[in-house]
Every structure is written in structure tokens, then in C-alpha cells.
Amino acid sequence: MTMKLRGNEFLNGKYTTRTTAKSFLLVPFTLLLIMLPLSLMRNSHESTPEVSSVTVSSSLNSTEIKQCDIFSGRWMHTNGAPYYTNETCHWIIDQQNCIKFGRPDREYLHWRWKPDECELPLFNATQFLNLLRGKKMVFVGDSVGRNQMQSLLCLLSHVSEPEDVSHRYSSDVMYFKRYIYHDYNFTLANLWSPYFVRSSDADPKGHSFNSIIRLYVDEADEAWTSQVENFDIVIISSGQWFFRPLLFYEEGQLVGCNKCGMENVTDLTHLFGYRKAFRTAFRALNDLEGYRGVTFFRTFSPAHFEDGDWNKGGKCVRTRPFTKQEMKLDGFVLDMYMTQVEEFIEAQRVATKRGLQFLMMNTTEIMLLRPDGHPNNYGHSKDKNVTLNDCVHWCLPGPVDTWNEFLLYMLDMESEAYYSSKLERVF
Ligand SMILES: *[C@@H]1O[C@H](CO)[C@@H](O)[C@H](O)[C@H]1NC(C)=O
Ligand SMILES: *[C@@H]1O[C@H](CO)[C@@H](O)[C@H](O)[C@H]1NC(C)=O
Ligand SMILES: *[C@@H]1O[C@H](CO)[C@@H](O)[C@H](O)[C@H]1NC(C)=O
Ligand SMILES: *[C@@H]1O[C@H](CO)[C@@H](O)[C@H](O)[C@H]1NC(C)=O
Ligand SMILES: *[C@@H]1O[C@H](CO)[C@@H](O)[C@H](O)[C@H]1NC(C)=O
Ligand SMILES: *[C@@H]1O[C@H](CO)[C@@H](O)[C@H](O)[C@H]1NC(C)=O
Ligand SMILES: *[C@@H]1O[C@H](CO)[C@@H](O)[C@H](O)[C@H]1NC(C)=O
């Protein structure tokens, strides 16, 4: 497990500290497009996106004022204590248990996200569980998604503890977790599928840290598509695995690769695989006849390796967030972000027609500002001979808890919205 988890995910985490503003301009453009359906659903009497967008911008009223772009803001220093500790929450796995394994600084626990236009409410476990009574929620993707699930387990743990029923659903209980909160009849699960699409080892020497993988980019992985239909809330995300050496197949034919080192195969780069994987995943959700859930798409979570790549001594030793002046969303992180967002916008258009709700959790830039939030070399048990630093996952407690504050905020908005009956109602 350790190898699979750590090795594969520690891929090329390059990033830049340049302060160019040009690429940054690309982003606000899409903001309008994405926020549109969010506004639409609060506007009960409108039926088409085109009409609503006009109405929303021209007639603000108390209901509309209440919504706020929670993703635009800054990290603000606070003296508040974290929601839980390594002593009060037993769900923290060693890889992310930074305090247990000796991380000396604590400043990274004292920053809260402050949206420009409003306050992001504190996570309220009772409120969360009441909202999700009788519901099923699943994280689909890789171990950073699981990182968020484990944060959620901790955030809920002072109100309710679940029963682990993973074995009833999968023989691979390391990768396919399922918990039931009996007091609330709430199911929390994760479905492991870091590529969303069918994959297989292509390396004659078998699977290892950086071995080559075949990706059938137009075939959704049944590991999640066969399970996801019954869930009410699906949180989908993926990232670092796409930087590996990959062979891309479409309609069963090799069409290109990423870093495969084969002269006769076109290098389509990681972005090709990333785009196609999201396209296929979103399409699979839209095509599943029985699927009635709300889909949350959590955007790319940047790594923060400095002084070297993940496998060349790279590390993340900072103890404070970056300011927006110090760190801009650009270069390779922006490329990843834009690629997936483009696919999301298209998928959301199709989903809306089908009556499905697709929402975006826009956390890329927010987390880009948190180089101090990763385990680095404090995230694993000391008796293991691990020489790689983890600048991909997030310490628990840590800034990843903020993702669940966003999640609760969005779910709460969703439940309050009295939107058009054209969209499926989950609450
Ligand atoms: C995502 O959030 C950032 C701020 O962190 C903002 O600049 C950007 O416009 C947002 N993008 C979308 C599509 O909402
Ligand atoms: C605000 O909008 C809601 C629904 O769109 C409507 O029922 C309400 O009357 C509006 N309030 C005001 C003050 O315009
Ligand atoms: C929590 O972390 C501290 C180090 O700060 C350690 O001494 C303690 O044993 C840890 N507790 C648990 C339950 O892991
Ligand atoms: C948390 O939510 C519950 C139920 O909605 C509410 O009764 C309680 O006052 C909230 N707690 C805080 C601290 O806001
Ligand atoms: C629990 O929730 C499920 C839906 O997730 C529902 O089918 C079932 O009837 C509920 N059970 C109880 C005891 O309320
Ligand atoms: C590429 O060349 C290798 C030998 O170097 C060969 O085994 C492989 O079949 C070739 N692949 C394609 C797609 O032509
Ligand atoms: C730990 O790693 C070092 C450097 O790679 C190696 O020399 C040593 O033998 C390893 N120790 C164990 C117990 O595996």
C-alpha cells in the first residue's frame, strides 16, 4: 500500500514562483461561465441559463446577496485552535499525521480562508450530518480525494463515529472504503480510480514508482462507474498520476504517450491524458441512467516540491502561506487547471440539460498558496526507510480541512435553494 500510495503520487510537482500576471487573466473569464448555473439554480422561476444570467445580474435581492464567491479571498491568520488533533481523531493515517511524527512548527494550523465577500462559516458537524441524513456521499479519484475524506471523518468524529463496512462492498478495503453513520443513516465512501479510465501495467518488469501504464482514455473505469449510481453526492478529483509515463489508447489503438521514451510514439504530454480522462469521467456520469446525484468537481491540488523533483530530493519546508503577490497561478499548474475546467464547463452544460447539478470546488489557487500544508518528511512512520518527501498530500489537521468547509457551505446553499424543477432535487 505504501508504495502504491506514495510512489505513484509523488510525481513531477514542479511549480513556479514567477509573478507574471498574463496567464492569470485567463481564469476570471471562466468564472462567469461556471458561476452561472450556480446562480441559475437559486433563481426558481427561470428556465434557461441565458435568461437567468441576465436576470441575476440585474436584480439582486436578499436571497441572491446571500451567495458569495467563497473561492476568491485570502488566507488570514487566526489564533483559533484546529478542529481536531492527533489525539482526538483516530482516522488520521500515518502518512498525513504530521504532528505525531514530529513536525515541530504549528503556525500552519492558524490560517483560515477568508472570502472577500463574506465569512466562510466554521465547519459544523451537526449541521453537516443533519443535512446529509439518509444520503450517500462518495469521493472518486486518488489519494488526495481520500485525504479530504479522512479530514471529513475527523471533522465529524466529535459528533458521530461511523461503522466501517468496507468489507461488505469490496475485497480491496485499503482502496475502497465505506462507512455508515448509523445515527444519521449517512454513508461516506471512496472509490479508488486515480485515472477514472481503464488502465493496466505496460512495464514488463511490473508496477513500480515510475513504471509505464496503459490508459484507455475513452473507457471509464468500472471500479467506480459500477458503484457510483446509487450515491447522492459525488466528489470527483484527480491529478498527480497523470505525470507518470503513460501510453494512451483510444478505441483500443495506441494514439500517443506521455514521457514514454519511444521514438515511434507521439508525445501528447500529460495534458492529453488529463483532458480525455475528465471528458470520459464526466460523460460517464452524464450517461448513467440511474444517476441522480449532485456532482462536485474539486480542481487540481498543486504539489510544492522545491529544490528538486519528487524523486530527486524535492522538499517543502516552508512554514507560512504565500501571499498572492508571491505566488501566481500560472505555468504548469494553470495548464492542468484550465484543461480540467474546460472539460467541466462542457460537461456541466450537458448535465444541466439532463437535469443534473455539476458544481465546481475551485481550490487550485487557494491551495497553491499553502506550501506549508504538506507532510514533507513528517508524514510517515520513522521506522520506515522512506527517503521521499510528501509535498502532494496535506497534513491532518491542516488546510485541507478548508475543503470540507467549502463542501458544507455549498451543500447548505444547495439545500436552501428553491430552484427550478428542471434540476433533480437531492435535498
Ligand atoms: C477560482 O478561484 C480563483 C481564486 O482563487 C479565481 O481567481 C478564479 O477566477 C476562480 N475560477 C473560477 C472558474 O471560478
Ligand atoms: C427575491 O427573490 C425571490 C425568489 O427569486 C422572491 O421570491 C422574492 O420576492 C425576492 N425578494 C425581493 C425583495 O425582491
Ligand atoms: C500525538 O502527537 C504527539 C507529538 O506531538 C505524540 O507525542 C503523541 O503520542 C501523539 N498521539 C497519538 C495518539 O498518536
Ligand atoms: C451547529 O448546527 C446545529 C444544527 O444546525 C445548531 O443547532 C448549532 O447551534 C450549530 N453550532 C454552532 C456552533 O453554530
Ligand atoms: C437510509 O437511507 C437510505 C437511502 O440512502 C434509505 O433507502 C433507507 O430507507 C434509510 N434507512 C432508514 C432506516 O431510514
Ligand atoms: C515502436 O518501436 C518498438 C521497437 O523499438 C516496437 O516494439 C513497437 O511495436 C513500435 N510501436 C509502434 C506503435 O509502432
Ligand atoms: C535505508 O536506505 C539506505 C539508503 O538507500 C540504505 O543504505 C539502507 O540499507 C536502508 N535500510 C534499510 C533498513 O532498508
List the helices and strands and how they pair.
Elements: H1 2-9, H2 26-41, H3 49-58, H4 62-66, E1 73-77, E2 111-115, H5 125-131, E3 136-141, H6 143-156, E4 163-164, E5 177-181, E6 186-192, E7 197-201, E8 213-220, H7 222-225, E9 233-237, E10 246-250, E11 253-258, H8 269-287, E12 294-298, H9 331-354, E13 357-361, H10 364-368, H11 401-416
Parallel strand pairs: 3-6, 3-9, 8-10, 9-12, 12-13
Antiparallel strand pairs: 1-2, 4-5, 5-6, 7-8, 10-11
Helix pairs in contact: 2-3, 2-9, 8-9
Can you tell me about this structure?
It contains 11 helices and 13 strands. By secondary structure, the protein is of the alpha/beta class. It has one domain. The strands form 3 sheets. A 7-stranded mixed beta sheet has the order 4-5-6-3-9-12-13, sandwiched between helices. The protein has a 4-stranded mixed beta sheet with strand order 7-8-10-11. Strands 1-2 form a two-stranded antiparallel sheet. Helix 2 crosses helix 3, helix 2 (26-41) runs parallel beside helix 9 and helix 8 (269-287) packs parallel to helix 9. The longest helix is centred in the last third of the chain and has 24 residues, at 331-354. Mean pLDDT is 84; it is low at 1-65. One 2-acetamido-2-deoxy-beta-D-glucopyranose (NAG) binds next to helix 4. Residues 66-119 form the Trichome birefringence-like N-terminal domain. One of its GO terms (cellular component) is membrane. It is a single-pass membrane protein. This is Trichome birefringence-like N-terminal domain-containing protein.
